[in-house]
Amino acid sequence: MSVRAGVVVTGTEVLTGRVVDRNGPWLSDQLFALGVDHAHTVVVGDRDDDMLAALGFFARQGLELIITSGGLGPTEDDRTAEIVGRFQGREMVLDEATEARIWEILSGLRTRWPHLDEDAIRRANRKQAVVPRGAAILPPVGTAPGLVVAPAPSSAGSRFPVVVVLPGPPRELQAMWPAAVETAEFRAVLAGASSYRSKMLRLFGIPESEIAATMRVAREGGVDLDALEITTCLRRGEIEIVSRWEPGADDVYRAFEDVVRSRHADVLFSDDGRSVDTQVADMLRSSGISVACAESCTGGLLAARLTELDGASEYFPGGLVTYANEAKSELAGVPASLIAEHGAVSEEVAKALADGARAALHAEVGVGITGIAGPGGGTEGKPVGTVWLSVSRGDVDPVARLTRRVHLPGGRADVRDRSTTVALHLLRRLLMGESDAPGERAAEPSAAAAGEPSGTHGPAATEGGPVGDE
Amino acid sequence: MSVRAGVVVTGTEVLTGRVVDRNGPWLSDQLFALGVDHAHTVVVGDRDDDMLAALGFFARQGLELIITSGGLGPTEDDRTAEIVGRFQGREMVLDEATEARIWEILSGLRTRWPHLDEDAIRRANRKQAVVPRGAAILPPVGTAPGLVVAPAPSSAGSRFPVVVVLPGPPRELQAMWPAAVETAEFRAVLAGASSYRSKMLRLFGIPESEIAATMRVAREGGVDLDALEITTCLRRGEIEIVSRWEPGADDVYRAFEDVVRSRHADVLFSDDGRSVDTQVADMLRSSGISVACAESCTGGLLAARLTELDGASEYFPGGLVTYANEAKSELAGVPASLIAEHGAVSEEVAKALADGARAALHAEVGVGITGIAGPGGGTEGKPVGTVWLSVSRGDVDPVARLTRRVHLPGGRADVRDRSTTVALHLLRRLLMGESDAPGERAAEPSAAAAGEPSGTHGPAATEGGPVGDE
């Protein structure tokens, strides 16, 4: 029997997108690890009826577990605890131990922020200590306690759904989760859970329709794909194939993966969950090679992405953001004459930026990016989305290079973000020993060198384009 | 009468968070502009039953309009059109005009990517042209047509809910939206919609509990807050207060805003929807002042944020990412002795980075950021989250400066992101003419200068902390 759960994310600010929900996805991973099937996430605004409707929807679907995030704060629009209490048929009571505990937490705060309205704090304290009678209370991480609330014994007689009430800030929600799982109510739910296996394959440089074809080939070759749950998606220009199956279907999955491997050997870059970011970081760390970048249109995004991972200082001394042409010349040593002759968005300038980054930061490897992110600045010959990227490695003789032009779809943010993905894949290939033949011009990149179909449109040109739509 | 809508976002990759949904929030804004109330967003995985359950939930809620995004692609798990057809009681038929249209679009593709499997493309073509009989067909932006599907005349007799079926890629969905709104089916829904007004106030430098107190003060002062729909949230360290009301309640809103203004004059920085990013950009552009940055812990994020906006080249020549100490010295001219004496994370180094950025990029204003983003590197005196920020302006005599130390909560990504928010607010205040008294040390920032309560904990230290929990 499989146990199913639903997540309710509260907050008009999430519904309208002013805040991106990080809790639904995080909870999805946790549920998966516990063998619980995540059926739905519902985002609701701050209205009692909408929240109640979502809880009712999940209950009617027969879900055994409901997790809510948000709505435990001190303001009047934070009403989750009360609504869940009503839903489960439990009256609200002040829990004095919890009130005292919160007051203790707030004392430190009152010392640090002496000008705050004490009355406001005291009310917030009390509000957050009013809970459904008989609920399991999870100790606060901030000031809000969490709750695990089973239906009142007097209601329909079912022990399900159990509702887990967690605070909205991801840091608090995540810290509180283990305590929620340990409650008797949660354990009762888990008694029926089964286990799954899953694996993710990542590919870069083909359209999604090719995966559809590969799935048909597998099916025609006798692989029972119905035993697998396979989803494919395009993310930041890469295709992810995620498969999930019950332990008995291990052989089916292996057969499917074999078909993917044989058809897409040149573009399958990850089969162990590692992103290209992690792969590049691991290669740099293990080889002792350092990388620097000089960015124009990406404006620092590649440097920011390279330093997202802890420990980046081992291989990343720094970077240059050379937005103005003068900065390209003065900081990265790109001759002004080169810019005048070929334009700032050109193969020559991309190469010079890569070399200049190496020189300025004393790094073995340099990355240069120059392009037109839009919305303005495009021309017929160089439309918005045209980006030149070059990576070069100076600790070998002759200097090893990979240089590509891509035409990226989408708006300014898409073009900038996608450029960093292309740069990381070029960096990965360079570190694996690939390089352009010396003297070769890069205007027509070869298919083999970057794992992309031939033609001037690079791999990332396809998302949202005519193939791989969706 | 108010018209209510629900959004169904499909895709296991969204449910599990591998892809962040941008369509729900975008659609929410569009619905709001049309006077339609956005009640729920449901995220469902790629399973027919879950999708049908979500549609049924919305129908039972009495929603007049349902919008789906995703599931129109060429792979086998893309099943939205068929499920919506079944839900509305309409059989699926091949639309030959649409098939021909898609084939035309694909021809360009086949020229550009000659090695693709032609059979795969032809099947994808046909699949995407099979639609519910009688549905309004929206011309493809990629290859997938959109649909507007009313219930079949033979079903229960209601004209609602109308289901609008849109592709998943935000670029396609957004481009297709106007055509959807123009259909007769959609217009029939809009006939019942009313209009709302809304306004957003942004504050920086107080905990959220203070807003709760302000709302009580307003209520006690006779402001009928029940006539307003008010939501508050913390986003990137700032508080947003969004109010929505029907036209008759204009006076109530004005009275509420007056209370907020009188209590929070020093921290209310935006009342016209402009973000601090836009305010800074506007001030730089109108004054002809340029800004450069030298970043350590943020690793390029501030430069990336400054160049997010189109036209940044008018005031942003570039930046330095000085991760290694040698880079701080060589590129930003920070004396190695200064680093040795005070440490890389110090007031002195932050100031020197700001000045060095100005000098290296020939900018009037410089920003320096140096801190400990974690998870490693913290000490007792400088724990993870300690960040020194300095802004300086060299076109006035003496040089104007604002320098602050903050202790930011959360993980590595939070500390890095929040640092850029603090930097932008310092930049804003500097451009508005504020500066520290010459010779003043910044270790104990004054409350007035940065709009924050006194003490060494800066404004952004509060999110997820003991106050403003949620």
What would you say about this model in short?
The structure is a homodimer of 470-residue chains. Chain A has 470 residues and is an alpha/beta fold.
Descriptive notes:
The structure is a homodimer of 470-residue chains. Chain A has a 6-stranded mixed β-sheet with strand order 2-1-3-8-7-6, with helices on both faces. In chain A, strands 14-13-15-16-17 form a 5-stranded mixed β-sheet, sandwiched between helices. In chain A, strand 13 (291-295), helix 12 and strand 14 (318-322) form a beta-alpha-beta unit. In chain A, helix 9 (209-220) packs across helix 10 (250-263). Mean pLDDT of chain A is 87; it is low at 443-470. Chain A has helices spanning 12-15, 23-33, 48-60, 80-87, 96-112, 118-128, 170-182, 184-190, 209-220, 250-263, 276-287, 301-306, 325-332, 336-342, 347-361, 412-431, 447-450; strands at residues 3-10, 36-44, 65-69, 92-94, 130-132, 136-138, 146-149, 162-166, 197-203, 229-235, 238-245, 268-270, 291-295, 318-322, 365-371, 386-393, 400-407. The longest helix of chain A has 20 residues, at 412-431. Chain A has 3 domains: 3-190, Molybdenum Cofactor Biosythetic Enzyme, Chain A (3-Layer(aba) Sandwich); 197-270, Alpha-Beta Plaits, CATH 3.30.70.2860; 276-462, Alpha-Beta Complex (Maf protein). With 470 residues, chain A is α/β, with parallel strands linked by helices. Strand 2 of chain A pairs antiparallel with strand 2 of chain B.
